[in-house]
Amino acid sequence: MSKKNRTANLSNLNFGIIGNCKSAALINKDSSIDWCCLPQFDSPSVFGKILDQNIGGSFKIDCDPSYEVEQSYISNTSILCTRFSNGVDAFELLDYMPRYNKENDIYYAPPEINRVLKYIKGEPVFRVIYDPRLEYALGETKSHIKEHFIVSIVNDKNYDTLFLYTDLDKKAVLSGEKIHLTKDHFISVSYNEKIQPPTLEHTLFAYERTKVYWLNWCHKTPHFKQYNAEILRSAMTLKLLTFEKTGAVLAAATTSLPETIGEVRNWDYRFCWIRDASMVIKVIAKLGHTKIVKNFIRYIIDLIPDKNEKLQIMYGISGEKTLTEETLEHLDGYKGSRPVRVGNAAYTQKQNDIYGILMDVIHYQIDRYPEDNERHEELWSIVKSIVWVVANNWQLADKGIWEFRHEDRHFTFSKLLCWVAVDRAIKISSLIRADKSVDKWSALRDEIQDDIMKNAWSETKQAFTQSYQSEHLDASVLLMEYYGFIDGKNPKYVKTVKAIEKELMHEGLLYRYKNEDDFGLPSSSFTVCTFWFINSLYKIGEEEKAKKHFDTLLSYSNHLGLFSEDIDFDSKHLLGNFPQAYSHLALIDNALNFNE
Q1: 378 and 275: one domain?
Q2: Domain annotation covers residue 271
């Protein structure tokens, strides 16, 4: 990927992500930590400048304009290196959240960020701008110097604390005085007060152990001839969005980054959507990381204790079922895009597609790990319950994959995934020798398939459309081939791909749809849709064209190869929550096509 293309996007979402499968932090190219929630992903922010430039809070290592700043990941790790140099004086800032194996696959992953100032040459001069704003900047955060640390406290609507440890002069750190760097130093920000205050030696040791963890994790990932670096970075990003404690997979690490600047499509994505997470872990499983798959399956089993309990479209990362949506009126939002939301009202929506996606993952689990009989008994109960729910609900309208908030429709994608649910249930039945269900379920599968072929096809558009008896096209129907409903060379599928390209492609990117939704016509491209289109081109036999589109889309990532939820059609700037699991799983899927 050319440097010219990468640098074109540096004015927008030029963040790296670090994390330890408990929480994460977004670090700007200028070294500023502009987003971090502690002690875990869905906690209130301690640094939230990304949502309010003035009061959100941040933590930056600041040099004068003579210094050039470059940022990259340490190879095959999620450790971020920001290099400052003016030609004579130079140092590096190494940012990581500790994660390493203690024993017996028990990982040390405390809620803290470590920053190592690595001396290179000369006599660099910098200032520390330390401005935590706890509890989403609600109330005033006050910082105090103690013997072993700086403690920051908010005691307004809520009470919370944050601790900073360093071998630099604490007064100089807190006051933003100039500091001359002549040797290595460390700064550690911890949600918890340390029983033993950390030292530089301790911090460097944790750095090496965290580095080894990521090197080992990457070593377990297959090496690919094409796009290996992109696959690996995306895989690590997906890993960073997993909450190891429960097995949940987050849609993204942020809340309320807008799909379009100045509009109100701002949502909290720090939750586990069954659809997104299921697709993520299926892709990760292809790369050999089975632990993530098994942890997610356990998360699902724990969510459904009763056979008659219906599945929500999303849950909290600790399994919470009520995700009440609130607005933080005191925050200006990203580039003035309000409101800032925490929680997500979509958890109450009915989306019939989630059953098929979950069933697809369960089938993958049972097919790949046939020896896990005890878990399969639990899964078989879930399979039968899902088929019962689908049989009683597939003919009903719902909100659809795009979560239309005000109108239920007979969405083609929802019907497709109902078909997938029954199709995979039949396959699961055969795998575990419960074949008596096959005949009954086969009739249901055929009924759904006939219904889709009859009602989703438009003779006028010569394409499968967004919903029954509709003339609107929708990128989600491209997944009909992906899920095995239709062959890539089927004339109706080929015509659908061509029709979608003609109507939804704009400036090299794809609209999700062009009919107005609850908020008007979308003005940015949902990144995953363009990836779906590229995959469809490949499947209909246009491999060269698909690869050209893929290379172009990769050039729209930020300087670290990361993608958000959306891309602006005109500027190609990244928009929406970041980094987005959906985008990176689709990137991997496409890249694997070109390695077949």
Answers
A1: yes
A2: yes
Residues 249, 316 contacting (CB under 8 angstroms)? no
pLDDT tens digits, one per residue of 227-263: 999 999 999 999 999 999 999 999 999 999 999 898 8
Domain shared by 413 and 482, yes or no: yes
Return phi, psi of residue 566, to 5°. -130, 165
Contact 582, 527 (CB under 8 A): yes
Any residues with CB less than 8 A from the CB of 467 and at least 6 apart, and which? Answer: 400, 409, 410, 411, 412, 456, 474
Same domain, residue pair 309 and 252: yes
For residue 3, tell me if it sits in a domain: no
Are residues 43 and 145 part of one domain?
A: yes
Name the residue among 165, 163, 174, 150 with its Cα closest to residue 200.
165
CATH number of the domain residue 396 falls in: 1.50.10.10
In a domain, 70, yes or no: yes
* Residue after which a domain boundary falls, among 166, 195, 219: 219
Residue 255: inside a domain, yes or no? yes
- Strand ranges inside 247-328, DSSP E: 248-249, 272-273, 314-315, 326-327
- Distance between CA atoms of 270 and 348, rounded to whole angstroms? 16
Q: What is the dihedral of CA 454, 460, 464, 466, to 10 degrees?
A: -100
Do 193 and 244 have their domain in common? no
Distance CA 342, CA 585 (A): 25
Hey, how many other C-beta atoms are within 10 angstroms of the C-beta on 333? 22
Question: Whole-model pTM?
Answer: 0.94
544's enclosing H/E stretch is helix 543-554
Q: Which residue has the tokens 């586990």?
A: 272
Domain span holding position 387: 228-593
pLDDT for residue 479 is more than 90: yes
Distance CA 91, CA 583 (A): 34
Specify whether 438 is located in the same domain as 516. Answer: yes
Residues 89 and 156 in one domain: yes
Q: What H or E segment, with its residue span, contains residue 264? A: none
Structural domains of the chain, count: 2
Q: Which residue has the tokens 């130079």?
A: 90
By CB atoms closer than 10 A (0-12, 13-18, 19+), residue 122 is middle
End-to-end CA distance of the chain: 21
Calculate the alpha carbon distances from 489 to 32, 480, 504, 537, 568 in Å: 50, 12, 21, 11, 32
Q: What is the CA radius of gyration of the chain?
A: 24
pLDDT 10s digits, 279-294: 998 899 889 998 898 8
**Tens digit of pLDDT for each residue in 66-92?**
999 999 999 999 999 999 999 999 999
Q: What angle do CA 563, 565, 567 make, to 5 degrees?
A: 75
End position of a domain, from candidates 190, 219, 248: 219
DSSP conformational letter for 422: H
Least confident of 66-70, 172-176, 329-333, 381-385: 381-385
Residue 64, Cβ density class (10 Å: 0-12 exposed, 13-18 middle, ≥19 buried):
exposed
